[in-house]
Amino acid sequence: MHIAVAGNIGSGKTTLTSLLSKHFGWDAHFEDVEDNPYITDFYNDMQRWSFNLQIYFLNTRFN
After folding, report:
1. pLDDT of 1-42, one tens digit each?
2. Structural domain of 59
3. Domains: count for the chain
4. Do residues 37 and 47 share a domain?
5. Are residues 37 and 26 in the same domain?
6. pTM of the predicted structure, to 2 decimals
7. How far apart are CA 35 and CA 45, in angstroms?
8. 37 and 19, same domain (yes or no)
9. Between residues 49 and 1, the one the model is more confident about
10. Does residue 63 carry a pLDDT above 80?
11. How far is 11 from 7, CA to CA, in rounded Å?
């Protein structure tokens, strides 16, 4: 079984996923932000980099 949690940045996805995985004994898998070339730029200028960041996340789901 796979359950996906989706939402905007800062909406609590990581918190909810962590709570669910702990409660049910599931393994949680998170998006890789270590190699994300846009994440730092996004936090510095959200309006400018939000589209690029979302396209990056979308593209990583297809790879």
Report:
1. 889 999 988 899 999 999 999 999 999 998 878 899 999 999
2. 32-63
3. 2
4. yes
5. no
6. 0.64
7. 19
8. no
9. 49
10. no
11. 6
Measured in residues, the chain has a length of: 63
Yes or no: say if 42 and 50 are a contact pair by the CB < 8 Å rule: yes
Query: How far, in Å, are 20, 26, 36, 57 from residue 60 at the CA level?
Result: 24, 23, 10, 5
Per-residue tokens: 2: 């796979």
Q: Which residues contact 33 (CB under 8 A, 6 or more apart)?
A: 39
In this predicted model, which residue has the larger pLDDT, 20 or 61?
20
Cα(1)–Cα(39) distance, integer angstroms: 29
End-to-end CA distance of the chain: 20
